[in-house]
Amino acid sequence: MIFNSYSFFLFFTIVLILYYSAKSWQVRKLILLAASYLFYAAWNPPFVILLWLSTISDWVLSKLIFSSKGTYRKNLFVCCSLFINLGLLAFFKYGQFLMSNTISILNVIGISYQPAHFSVILPLGISFYTFQTLSYTLDIYFEKSKPWHSFLDYALYVTFFPQLVAGPIVRSDDFLKQCQQKKNFIANNIGWGLTLITLGIFEKVVVADVLLAPAAEALFSSNDKPNFLSAWLGTFAFSGQIFCDFSGYSTCAIGAALCLGFTLPQNFFFPYASIGFSDFWRRWHISLSTWLRDYLYIPLGGSRKGNLRTLVNLMLTMLIGGLWHGAAWTFVFWGGLHGIYLIGERVLKKAVGHFYCWRMKPIQFLLAILTFLLTSISWVFFRATSFNQAWMILGGMFFPSVDPDNFHLSSVRLATTGVIIGAMIAIHWIFREESLEKIVSRLPLWLLSIGLASSMYFIATIHGENRAFIYFQF
Fold first, then answer.
1. What residues does 407 pair with on adjacent strands?
2. Residue 142 contacts by C-beta under 8 Å, 6 or more apart in sequence?
3. Which positions ≥6 away from 440 have C-beta within 8 Å?
4. Rounded to whole angstroms, how far apart are CA atoms 325 and 128?
5. 93, 194, 202, 282, 297 from 293: Cα distances, Å
6. What are the C-alpha distances in Å from 412 to residues 24, 37, 211, 222?
């Protein structure tokens, strides 16, 4: 069940009717919890057991951590939580990756080992809800919060269906406090929530799937070296596709939650207008980048233990962030490349960051373009199925040739990608400091109505492949 499906439209309509028909706030939360389990079970019912295991184990262990007097017992219980959550994640997401790399290492040192083949299905959203439950336990361990009093509230926090499978990753303090007060039916919230869902589905279905995905998939499914324009614009197409796909999901999740009276954190803030990579990670997948900052980078020492240690911490954080995205060395390399970008930016800021020219708008715009170009280069490794394919595409970018056998995109796809990406960068730059709510509030009602009506028309009539959201695989 995905947001861009008729089944979700029917499911969400029924949930809204049942939810607001119940007078008791306790009953409403039970309806949401049952709906969340049903939503997740629609993918693969047995994996609901993993949700229960994660929910119950962290609920119990967090209370034990809080009640423990000695450091040893607290450390023991938090290690149990880490072992259960990361152990499940490692088995389902990284088991085959670890096994194949172990076999390769053994073969290199002359040991022949061929275990029986096994196949593991990746549970949907396991990376997201694992990080979410861990944040609850770790906040109690670091004495930032106390165990919540209601198991129902906590279970709803773990399984809340709008953001269960692809975020945003919500902090317990932000969500659980919202469970205390009954949510009234507010027409403005419903209206704005449905507007966000419409905008999110338009981003996903029309822009990501129909306008940009064909060019990106043509490039990354080819076995031939691309020509110069095809390499760059095909990569730009994926840059736009992954943004519109993931931002579209987050926008739908925020809108669906708002219809139910809950507020979820913003996950994207015009990232392709970023001036540098520290700015990029303040704007891209914000809930993950702040999670990595608070629960990995800062506990490692952050920037408190000298310049060299800071650079090491940055690189470790980005490498683990890359591995979080997928069980492949290309994802690790993608994270490492962003680590190099962040380290390079930090070094350059210390050397020349004091010059006034960096604050001039034209210079900042050029830096934003440079950030986008370097980000797009990193997306090659994120999207490529192998290093060989990534190097081949980069070869087309930086070492072009006139070989007639080179892969090339059609002129229609090149033009479409150029127009869409140009418009996307312009929009991001113009509105880089403004929220979507402020932008929409300035629009006249007639223009907003035409925009929404047009979006719904294109969503309903445009025919493309029924693609799942990209981040569902993570």
1. 226
2. none
3. 195, 448
4. 10
5. 22, 32, 31, 11, 5
6. 56, 44, 11, 18
The count of other CB atoms within 10 Å of the CB of residue 2 is 19
Residue 429 to residue 272: CA distance in whole angstroms: 8
pTM, 2 dp: 0.91
For 349, phi and psi rounded to 5 degrees?
Answer: -65, -40
Contacts of residue 154, defined as CB under 8 A and 6 or more positions apart, other chains included, come to: 55, 59, 136, 148, 172, 176
- Is residue 281 classed as helix, strand or coil in its secondary structure? coil
pLDDT by residue, tens only, the chain of 474 residues: 677 778 889 999 999 999 999 999 999 999 999 999 999 988 888 889 989 999 999 999 999 999 988 888 999 999 999 999 999 888 888 877 777 777 778 777 777 767 666 667 777 788 888 999 999 999 999 989 999 999 999 999 999 999 988 879 999 999 999 999 888 888 999 999 999 999 999 999 999 999 999 999 999 998 888 999 999 999 999 999 999 999 999 999 999 999 999 999 999 999 999 999 999 999 999 999 999 999 999 998 888 888 888 899 999 999 999 998 888 899 999 999 999 999 999 988 888 777 767 778 888 999 999 999 999 999 999 999 999 999 999 999 998 877 777 888 899 999 999 999 999 999 999 998 888 888 888 888 888 889 889 888 888 888 666 666 776 666
CB-based contact 310:343 (threshold 8 Å): no
Q: Which residues are annotated as catalytic?
A: 325
For residue 99, give the nearest of 74, 122, 117, 111 by alpha carbon. Answer: 117
Residue 191 pairs in a beta bridge with none
DSSP 376-401: HHHHHHHH-SSHHHHHHHHHHHHS--
Look up residue 154 and give its two tokens: 């906590």
Residue 146 CA to residue 136 CA, distance in Å, equals 9
